[in-house]
Amino acid sequence: MDDNILDKTVITGANGMVGSYVDFGIKVNKRLLDVTDLMETMKIIDQYQPRAIIHLAAETDVDRCERDPMYAYFVNAIGTYNVAVAAQKVGAKMVYVSTSAVFDGFSKDPYSEDDKTNPQYFYGRSKYIGEVVVRDISDDYIIARVCGVFGGGPKKDQKFVSKIINQLKKKDCQEIKAINDSFISPTFGKDLINHLKYLIKKDAKGIFHLSNKGVCSRYDMVVKIIEVLGKDVKVMPVDSSYFNLPAQRGMNESMVSKRFDLARDWQKALEEYLREEWLPTLKLLRY
């Protein structure tokens, strides 16, 4: 497939954290395209006549999904259905960004593309339904599973890395508590977009795990953040029950890929993210 497909790619949810790394195609946000509205979605997609659609628009707040499961299903399942129908109608490749939360989290080993899905909480269930929809409706699709996504820098990052940095900014911060009994495979949004570009241009099809390489706890990530930022702060390991979150995450949501071997280690990706997108701003603030 030729490179021009990227110029004719629509990216939903392009104003989000991952969307900030998109440097190609036709970027649309919720104001331009509400994916929960089927008629509007079909109209806009028909107008652009894309050759591919990267569907980033989603509700990724796990705790909000647990508090309001109908909203989670509305955005993540019905919204994905609408985009998949529109993609099929215009003959576009459907690229759906999913999650390792579609697994049950009980395995001692990282999950591969061939492992059985069995989501245990509403976020994972709503994203899993999206996967089913894409597989059933689309003739040409990529399902890209990710985990622990980070990126976006100071303007877009509202996830884990940003929350830790905001704690470190406080003058009286001497200790940070972080979970050390559950495991993930972090995904740098910049790397994810580069991997999707590669797979689209290769005309790949099927399910791919696109997290960065390796397995870690949130505790491990905090240790790495403090190391890169040069802070003298103690990291206190705690178990998953400490924060009493609405959604009970899987004890193991880490991933490995049997079909994609171009990802770099999560440590290298996180260090690049911190050095290139956070450190310059923090230095300006006399951090």
Automatic annotation (TrEMBL):
It is an enzyme of class 1 (oxidoreductase). Signal peptide: none annotated. One of its GO terms (molecular function) is dTDP-4-dehydrorhamnose reductase activity. The keyword NADP applies. Residues 9-276 form the RmlD-like substrate binding domain. GO terms for cellular component: cytosol. InterPro entries: dTDP_dehydrorham_reduct (IPR005913), NAD(P)-bd_dom_sf (IPR036291), RmlD-like-bd (IPR029903). Pfam families: RmlD_sub_bind. Its EC number is 1.1.1.133. Keywords: NADP, Oxidoreductase. It comes from the Bacteria. Belongs to the dTDP-4-dehydrorhamnose reductase family. This is dTDP-4-dehydrorhamnose reductase. It comes from Candidatus Komeilibacteria bacterium CG11_big_fil_rev_8_21_14_0_20_36_20. The lineage of its organism: Bacteria, Candidatus Komeiliibacteriota.
